[in-house]
Design goal:
The complex is a heterodimer of chains A (385) and B (183). With 385 residues, chain A is mainly beta. Chain A has helices at 3-16, 26-55, 82-85, and strands at residues 90-94, 103-108, 113-118, 127-132, 137-143, 153-158, 161-169, 172-179, 186-192, 198-204, 207-212, 217-221, 228-229, 237-240, 243-246, 260-263, 269-271, 279-283, 287-292, 295-300, 307-308, 323-329, 334-340, 346-348, 367-372, 375-380. Chain A contains three helices and 26 strands. In chain A, a hairpin with a 2-residue loop joins strand 14 and strand 15. Chain B has two domains: 8-94, Rna Polymerase Sigma Factor, Chain: A (Orthogonal Bundle); 103-183, Winged helix-like DNA-binding domain superfamily/Winged helix DNA-binding domain (Arc Repressor Mutant, subunit A). The chains are: A mainly beta (385), B mainly alpha (183). Chain A: The chain crosses the membrane at residues 43-61.
């Protein structure tokens, strides 16, 4: 740790000591506000129900009345192991590359080859590798150019190439690409970009499609060329090609994240169902999750199949989309459980809480990874029906 | 401590009135305020963050207490709230008025005062990354999960924040030229 980092620790710890003290009335204040908000939501829901009936529309409440979210006591029964529930989705591998280095997997290039970079907490990765998991052989695809690509991120393969992005600074971002067959990497696009960089990237035919954190969907030829904005995508984000939507992950005005999505090939649009009183709604292509004063919920974009969000109690794992993970206390040890919000199926991942952070399915992530019994386990979410 | 607040007019169940929530607030309220203070940089926003996070925790209390760590839940909620633009709207609802103090004057030496001032100049997200790294001592992977961004974003935000902070304090005051990639 550098001297500056040590100084930061001291400074923050010292400043924390200057924080005001909580007033003795804090609990009462919180309790009162919680009840006011809950009562207001109930009143709004009741009003909405009347409006729906008077208007004779199918709008709003699925069953016409405000209803309390079921209490959903924590289950004491663990679901079956993932090996039994979704055996087709898991791959167990040695925890290191053939040269002994730990690695970070990104995606399967084909049914036996993983896109990986070496993982070392003390230094940045030197290269991108294709790891043949059947043969146990890793082939270098390309070196990561250190002088400009300080923080290569978003590695994705498609169209015979691998690409990633970086924001070297000065308000400009870069997209890099190299042939999967091997060869030097080069910049295929540069454009103004804030520190948030690219929030999603995919390959569509012979073009890279990507969106930036501050909003805007663009394409650029796989081998480089002119960056073109996607029509109508100026304030949107890539969700899952060909779907784009708004607002993105940085939704700040209380609008549902990806509440409105559009298929840029067909023009089809979809607006997620919302109720008065909903908060922090985050949607994926199929499923939305959010909050009310009664707790977290999940439902399909059209409002159907609403149920308590099984993962709502762990905000660090509350991610949009179909899959989430939560800790379940069985008769013995508490274990991490992968939940499918769409089908309601669940499976024990085989690890305790401590090793969980870092594998929770994130936006657009299709491959989970964690270490179990000294081996790297991959869960390919695309293989879960 | 009493639950306080308005009278229960809805026949709340015993579980709904769990006194352990009050105990949690009494025991951990100060710690949450300390965290809120380094996150937000001023006592008003710190109080606001804590209050709002506790309301959310209260709404999910029964499940969070049984299945997870309430403090971790509150802290993650605070970090996420910090990144949102909700504070100004809710400022008027703040239920108590924390005293204004010249906090930087009480930090022990000049370098730390300068660093505290420099932290105030960081964009909100960069500040959050710095606080989660050096106050909460989370790994970059954990920070990425808490803030809902990629690990690369955490690294680049941290690098930029450290570069700015380095520029803000004198060369002789413990400022190296490179950052150890310790995480």
């Amino acid at each position: 740790m550098s001297q500056l980092e040590e100084a930061l620790r001291r400074t923050l710890a010292g400043a924390a000591g200057q924080a005001p003290q909580a007033p003795a009335t804090l609990t009462g204040t919180v309790e009162a506000r919680y009840r006011r908000r809950r009562n207001r939501t109930r009143a709004m829901l009741a009003t909405a129900a009347v409006v729906a009936v008077l208007g004779g529309t199918a709008f709003a409440l699925k069953d016409g009345t405000p209803r309390a979210m079921p209490a959903a006591p924590p289950t004491a029964t663990l679901p079956p192991a993932i090996e039994k529930v979704w055996p087709q989705a898991i791959h167990d591998l040695p925890a290191t590359l053939p040269d002994g280095r730990a690695f970070r997997p990104y995606q399967f290039i084909d049914d036996r080859t993983l896109l990986v970079t070496p993982e070392d907490r003390t230094k940045l990765p030197d290269a991108v590798y294709a790891y043949d998991v059947r043969a146990g052989d890793a082939r270098k695809i390309t070196d990561l150019p250190k002088e400009t690509a300080l923080f290569p991120e978003g590695l994705v393969a498609g169209g015979g190439r691998v690409m990633w992005w970086t924001v070297p600074g000065n308000g400009r971002g870069q997209l890099w690409s190299a042939p999967l067959s091997g060869g030097p990497a080069r910049v295929v696009a540069g454009l103004p970009m804030d520190d948030g960089g690219v929030d999603a990237m995919a390959v569509a035919g012979d073009r890279i499609v990507f969106s930036v954190q501050e909003g805007g969907v663009f394409t650029v030829p796989l081998r480089g060329g002119t960056v073109k904005p996607v029509k109508g995508g100026a304030d949107s984000h890539l969700l899952a090609w060909p779907w784009i939507g708004r607002p993105g992950m940085a939704s700040a005005k209380g609008e549902p994240m990806f509440g409105t999505i559009r298929n840029v090939q067909t023009g089809e649009t979809d607006t997620a169902f919302t109720r008065p009183g909903d908060e922090s709604i985050r949607c994926g292509l199929e499923v939305c999750a959010g909050w009310t004063v009664r707790g977290g919920f999940t439902r399909l974009r059209d409002g159907s199949q609403e149920r308590p969000d099984p993962c709502a109690d762990r905000p660090q794992t509350v991610t949009p989309g179909r899959f989430c993970a939560e800790l379940v206390k069985g008769s013995g040890q508490a274990l991490e459980v992968l939940r499918d919000r769409r089908t309601g199926r669940s499976a024990v991942l085989g690890i305790a809480r401590s090793s969980m952070l870092g594998l929770v399915p994130n936006m657009g992530q299709r491959l989970m990874h964690y270490t179990v019994q000294g081996r790297m386990r991959l869960v390919d979410l695309t293989k879960i029906p | 401590m009493s639950l306080g607040g308005d009278q229960d007019d809805e026949g709340l169940t015993h579980v709904d009135r769990d006194p352990r929530f009050a105990e949690f607030v009494a025991e951990r309220g100060d710690a949450l305020l300390r965290y809120g203070y380094v996150l937000a940089g001023n006592p008003h926003d710190a109080a606001d963050l804590v209050q709002e996070a506790l309301v959310k925790l209260r709404a999910s209390w029964a499940r969070v207490r049984l299945k997870d760590n309430p403090e971790s839940y509150a802290r993650t909620t605070m970090a996420r709230l910090h990144l949102r633009a909700w504070r100004r709207r809710r400022r008027e609802q703040l239920a108590w008025d924390p005293p204004e103090r010249a906090h930087h004057d009480t930090l022990p030496d000049g370098d730390e005062q300068r660093l505290w001032h420099a932290l105030a100049g960081l964009p909100r997200r960069q500040r959050a990354v710095i606080v989660l790294r050096y106050y909460e001592q989370l790994t970059d992977e954990e920070i990425a999960r808490v803030l809902g961004v990629s690990r690369g974003t955490v690294r680049s935000q941290a690098a930029r924040a450290l570069a700015k902070l380095r520029d803000s304090v004198p060369a002789e005051s413990a400022v190296p030229t490179t950052r150890g990639e310790a995480r």
